[in-house]
Structures are given as C-alpha cells and as structure tokens.
What we know:
Layout: E1 15-20, H1 26-34, E2 41-45, H2 53-65, E3 71-75, H3 78-83, E4 89-92, H4 95-100, H5 106-122, E5 127-132, H6 143-162, E6 165-170, E7 173-176
Parallel strand pairs: 1-5, 1-6, 2-3, 2-4, 4-5
Antiparallel strand pairs: 6-7
Helix pairs in contact: 5-6
Amino acid sequence: MERDKYSPKDNLAKIIFITGGTKSGKSEFAEHIAKKSNHMTYIALSEKRTKDERWDKKISIHYKRRPKNWKLIETTDILTILNNKLGPILIDSIGGFVMESIDREDKEWRDKMNALIDLLIKRKSLTLIVGEQVGWGLVSEYKIGNVYIERIGELQKKITKISQENWLAINGRALKIDEISLEIPN
Length: 186
C-alpha cells in the first residue's frame, strides 16, 4: 500500500516523521510533540549493547528526558508491536528496523519494509517516527554500511510519502519540510 493509492477521506493515521543527523535534536523534537498526548508508548528500536558505556549513557539521557507515565517497549520487532492495537506511539529510531534486517536478501527486505508501511498506514492513532539521515556523508568502504544507507534511504522515502507531517532536525532546529519542498517524481 502507498499513500497515493488512497484518498484523504480514507482516514489515514496521523504519522509525523522527524529525521535528521546525529545530535541534530530529532529525538528531543519528537518527544516535545509527543508530550502533547496524555498516553504515549515509547518504542526504543535497538538491541541491547553489552559493555558499551557510550551507548548506555545515551540511553540514560533519553530515559531521563521522557515523562515517567510513558510506557516503554524496547524491541527490534516493530512489526509485532504494530500488530497490537496501541494508542499513540513514538518510534525511536527507525534505523533499528533496518539494522534488524540488514543481513536479509533484497526481496525479503522489501517484503518486510512494505509490511511495515502497510501497518503504519492502517494505524488510527498518532505515530511519531524518528529516523536517521545518513546519506550526506562519505560512502562507506564496507558493504554493510552501504546496504544500511541505501535501505534507510528507501524506507524513509516511503515513510515520508505516508506521513501527514515531515520534519528535518538540523543543528537543534526543526524545519517542516512539507512547506518548503517539492516531492520528487518517481
């Protein structure tokens, strides 16, 4: 399913997509928007990293910033979570979905990516999604790095198409890119 196959009257979910580079403020901005909702489920899409002090510190900062009444789900299986009928959610970050599937063949990846898009389209509650902009830098000398860059770019274009709002966080500022951009035709 893709957004252009639907008309506005189909009551699509309210998806707000916030993307940006490392330390751009994208998570803080998503959390700022999410605080307007009374009941929020924060979905942390990452694997546990043992003996990684920098990662633990980053996770601790995120945790301390969030309201105590938010429900937390730590997982790499977003498809199962989205199949449950949750209310408002904040997914941080969609790169975890890409990493969870990094070793899959291209066809299996596309099927899984399309399943994610279908589930997001069907949601009726607020869905905030944080995503990483990684294609602005150097080309990776490693195959896995290039697969990640290509897949996250492809996924984020699809998420942008189905989102009611799209934001770019850069240097601690947020730009609503829907208002200052044109969609590139396929």
